[in-house]
Amino acid sequence: MYHPDLIRHPDGCPALVLNADYTPLSYYPLSVWPWQTAIKAVFLDRVDIVAEYEREVRSPTRRVKLPSVIALKSYVRPSAFPAFTRFNVFLRDKFSCQYCGCGNELTFDHIVPRAQGGRTTWENVATACAPCNLKKGGRTPKQAHMPLHIAAIRPTSWQMQEHGRRFPPNYLHDTWHDWLYWDVELEA
């Protein structure tokens, strides 16, 4: 009988990493480790195995099933605020232009342009599609008559995790579903 986990290459068997309270370390990006890191953490007694793939790896003296879900033994306190990155700005803005709402050709826009003294901060950067960014040019939204849909804020890590739950990855192993809670209904 064919079982996809038996044929899958070990590199296609990442381990979902849960914190010590059995919640994912992060939703977006989803907290996963390559199988080698997961096996090493098991042997160093840093994690508990919660679920396993059918896939095994072998050494001359051992056979080990690859872990599909692991939980850290020590709780990792999440950072209060996420790092400021282009990707995180897009995630905060739910991958949509803050001027027109579309999700194509996304760019990074300074609300108060740098030429006018604007800085690269959470509160002064918004996601914009290329056409809106070009149309706005070196003006403020007020000068360009292009109001933002939502004010740019410095998000908390919790807010980012909630936004990340709206965008599940393409691959979720069956053993992960009990630990992940995705928002399946997206806003129109």
Q: How far apart are the first and last residues' alpha carbons, in Å?
A: 43 Å
Largest sheet: 4 strands, mixed
Query: Low-confidence stretches at least 5 residues in length (pLDDT < 50)?
Result: 183-188
Shape: elongated
Estimated helix fraction: 10-25%
Mean pLDDT: 89
Give me the count of strands.
6
Quickly count the helices: 6
Q: Order of strands side by side in the largest beta sheet? A: 2-1-4-3
| Series of secondary-structure elements, N-terminal to C-terminal | HEEHEEHEEHHH
The structure class reads alpha+beta
Q: Radius of gyration from the CA trace?
A: 21 Å
Oligomer: single chain
The percent range for strand residues is 15-25%
How would you describe this structure to a colleague?
- By secondary structure, the protein is an alpha+beta fold.
- About 20% of the residues lie in helices and about 20% in strands.
- The protein has 6 helices and 6 strands.
- The protein has helices at about 5, 35-45, 85-90, 130-135, 140-145, 155-165; strands at about 15-20, 30-35, 45-60, 65-70, 105-110, 125-130.
- A 4-stranded mixed β-sheet has the order 2-1-4-3. A two-stranded antiparallel ribbon has the order 5-6.
- A hairpin with a 4-residue loop joins strand 3 (about 45-60) and strand 4 (about 65-70).
- It is elongated.
